[in-house]
Each structure stands twice: as C-alpha cells, then as structure tokens.
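Key idea: predict the complex, not the pieces.
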Amino acid sequence: MQINGITVSQPQPEIVVLPFNGTKLVIKAQYIPADELKKLDELLPEPKPPMISKVINDKPQPEVPDFKDKKYQEKIEAYHLTRMAWIYIESLRATESLEWDTVDMEDPSTWANWSTDLENTGLPNSYIIRISQLVADAQGWNPERIEEATKNFLAGAPVE
Amino acid sequence: MARIDLRNTTITLKDGSSTPNEVEIGIGQGNLTWTENIEYEYLPDRGVLDDVVEGDEQPVSVDFQFKFDYLKSASGATTPSVYEALHNIGNASSWVSSDTDICRPYSVDIEIENVTNCTTGDNETYLFSDFRVESVNPDIGGAQVSASGRCNIVRPTITRTAKT
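Result:
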C-alpha cells in the first residue's frame, strides 16, 4: 500500500544509545505486528469469566458471565500485565545480544520480571524509563510524536 | 467454635484437575455440619482403667442442607448443578475425582471460604478432602439441596489468612 506516494511497510526499529560505565549500550525496540499478537493469544489465552446462575424467587435463572467475580478480575488484571510484559520483551528482541536473567519466553509467569531484570543490572532508573518509552514509541503509542509531526506539517515544514 | 454466618461464606465443590473444575455455591440459608469420629481403646489392668491407645482412624462425616442464591462455575465452563458435581454426571461429567487414586470411587473436595464482614479478623478456609456423597436430597424447584457423606480424612484442613 502507498500513502502520499510512499510505500508504507513495517516500521523500522527505534534506537537509543545509553552511555554506561564507559561503553555505549545500543538498545533497539521493534514494532510488534498484529500477527505476532495473535501468536501471543495462543500462548496466553484471555481468562474467561465464570458463569453464574442466580436464584430469584426460588427459580434458577439462565446462566450469564459474571464479570464482577473477584477472582476473574484478579486474573484479567494479571493477564493484561503479563500481556504488556510480553510486548516489552518481544519488542526489545531487536536489541543485539540481549539476554534476560530470569525471563523465560516459554513461561508466561516470568515475563513480568523484565523490569526487575533491567533494574538489577544497575542501570539508572531514568535509563529504564527511557527504554520503556522506546518500546512505546516503537509500537506507535506516543501521541506526542504524531502531534509534533502534524504541527510541523501545518507550520509549513516539508514532509521528509 | 465461633458461629459462622453462612451468608458470608461460599461453598465450592472442586474436582481433582490441575486447574480445578468447580461450582461455587452462594448460600442463602442453611447449614453444614461435620462429625469427627475418634476411637480410643481403653486397656484396663486387672479391672482398673490403665492404658489408652488410639483405635483405627475414622472418616469425617459431613452433612449439609442449604438453599442457594447462586451457582457459579469455573471460568468459562458451563455451570453444573450441585447434584451433577456430586455424581460426576451431566455438566460435571468431565470432572476428575479429587482422590489421587483413580481406582477409588469418585469424590470431590468441599471448600468453605468464610470471608468475615468485619474489618478485623482473619478469613478462614475449611477443606473437606475427598468427599463421597452417600445420601442426597435435591429440591430443584426450591433451589435447595441436602446431602451427607464421608471424607477420607480424619479432620478437615482449616487455614486462616489475613484480610487484605
């Protein structure tokens, strides 16, 4: 597909270089396409709510999903956190020779360790926040970039 | 033992799967009682009471009768009735016995969770493992069930957890 005469394809990885202990850490984050997210759905299925059949005037009613169930709400919260963790880990796979200490891609229960692993490296907190922003940028989650590009365009800046 | 308001409790029948199939029963009215049977053998010495030794272990007897406000299944599963869960039939036909010995008759675990409605005090969980129903009296029209049976344990496991 082309837009404005430009062939639109998958975004290039976002890159940030972090000076640390006399070296430069090159961190790359890639966009996660929809196909990859479908694979995640297979690996980490979304929890389903329990079905509840209430009794009204001594008569059991047809069963309906119970979205207010406390255990379900805990599961769905954990599910979204784990899913988000996977996006961060998968996105950072673009970084060469990145090895996690405790994250195992086959074990969803370890995915949330990604931030702890980063913290345990001794990297300053500001760097870890920058890495998180990098992943968000790669996914197109940063609305400020779009606003900035739009403002620049409307101000007459040439489209690159 | 402190009196427990069953309206603050949920009774859950669970099978032996790694991610258990279950039916949660919200109690409107009713009660659950159990009896622990402890046998001792008294050994007199020339007609005078003397030694005491433990007799054979006896299973816990459990009786319950209640009117329920709701039945709730495990996530996404079709809700079985209490009767089906106790008998491994209908919507509970795929349930696996809670007893790890598959040669033994089908059983379920009964878990009672007492969530106190005051700000202090711990929540309590009573676990009656491997309950086998011996008598059941369902009342479909009245959303009631009463049943009795025995568990292959000498006493329930009672745990307390701090309120969060």
